[in-house]
Amino acid sequence: xxxxxxxxxxxxxxxxxxxxxxxxxxxxxxxxxxxxxxxxxxxxxxxxxxxxxxxxxxxxxxxxxxxxxxxxxxxxxxxxxx
Length: 82
Prior knowledge:
- This protein is mostly helical.
- The chain is 80% helix and 0% strand.
- The protein is built from three helices and no strands.
- Helix 2 packs antiparallel against helix 3 (61-81).
- The termini are far apart.
């Protein structure tokens, strides 16, 4: 077992807990906005970049994929809105 396995597992758990308020905000406020609203697209792009970066740093490909998908979706909706 590598020396970094336990610390990375703890950091992954902490990231999941730190992301909970952002998920609540997404479900309670952002989801009620128009899908192409600039504020919603900005928030989703920011959250996607955060997930992508955290996934890369923590070595969690699922979080990284989720972030990339969210950022790509918000970029696509932004292009459609223009």
